[in-house]
Amino acid sequence: MELAPIPHNEAERQAVITRMRIATFDAEPELDRITSLAKRIFDVKSATVTVLDHDRQIFKSRANFEKLESSRDISFCGHAITRTGPMVINDARADQRFCDNPLVACNEPIIFYAGMPVHHHEGYPIGTLCIFDNKPREMSERDIDNLKDLAYLVEMVLLLRFAQFSQKRLLQNLDDAVRQSMMDPMTGLWNRRGLDEILDRELAPDGAPVPEPCGVLLCDIDHFKAVNDTHGHLIGDEVIISIAGILKNHLRENDIIARVGGEEFVCVIPGMTRDMTPKIAQKLCDILRNTPIETSEGKTLDLTISIGATWLSPVMGPINRKAVFETADEALYSAKYSGRDRVVFNAEPLKDRTKGLLERH
């Protein structure tokens, strides 16, 4: 039997697992949906999401599998995490690495195994999405593509979970003075400084590629000056607070929301596809239009917002953050100029536009 090898970057890999706090048996309903789906798609006996800890394999999610953990030394997944692509064992009894493995030579053997490494966004393999059965199987190219796609979904779930935890941890670790300097006191959202800090920590430093696709929305309250002129600045403040609350209530906890100007908000939404980004923006527009703002004076204000949206992807390479927001700002200007209460989406590759954008400002 061939024991599971130790990756060359094991120390860094374990540090990532510790930082992510995923070597636990906490319930993971989002992952459970993925393993349940994998079991159905491939029509196999079991599917799991694993984390390869120091000396054990933890089953974070299990579909038709009872164990919570097992020895890492004899695990199939310990081999799989050292690969860049899927590891497929059609019949473990005929594979010299596994034929005498205790998981094969037992009453409920693993005969077929297919595992795809699951990576942290910095590139370290932390575990696998795997499927297995007690009889020989084969995987088609389409099957392998499906397994890769499901493993990508696992990575997105773990990344979003970590981003949510990291924002909370950042706030907890800041002393009062620093926290106040990074938060907008009126809305409780990040301010511009806080936005830069959280983007550096959870998305990518300025000038680096983003680790995952994400949408960037620049939102502006329509005719806000008229609100202040007609109703006064106190009512204007109530409007800003109300709209900030609507954004928080209709975006996910791990999405990054900041107030960056008097009536301007930035929303950075990780895990968004190119097609989903303008749809999410339009949904926010529709919600704001259909949500009257109740003021302390008993007045009801019907307001709208305009949104300039853009989209980032790892394939774009290093991203200039100033160019990102200028792209969204140009889209917002187009939304305002063309009538307000609408979304304009501009997903033109940012690195090709950076020079021109910076020259114009």
Write down the domain tally.
2
Helical stretch count?
11
> What fraction, in percent, of the residue positions are helical?
40-55%
CATH domain class of the largest domain: Alpha Beta
Q: Distance N terminus to C terminus?
A: 65 Å
Structural class: alpha+beta
The CATH superfamily of the largest domain appears as Reverse transcriptase/Diguanylate cyclase domain
Q: Would you identify the regions where 5 or more consecutive residues have pLDDT less than 50? A: 351-361
Identify the strand order in the major beta sheet.
3-2-1-6-5-4
Question: Given the C-alpha coordinates, what overall shape results?
Answer: elongated
Order of helices and strands: HHEEEHEEEHHHEHHEEHEEEHEH
CATH architecture of the largest domain: 2-Layer Sandwich
Radius of gyration: 24 Å
Portion in strands: 15-25%
- Assembly annotation: single chain
Number of strands: 13
The major pleated sheet works out as: 6 strands, antiparallel
CATH topology of the largest domain: Alpha-Beta Plaits
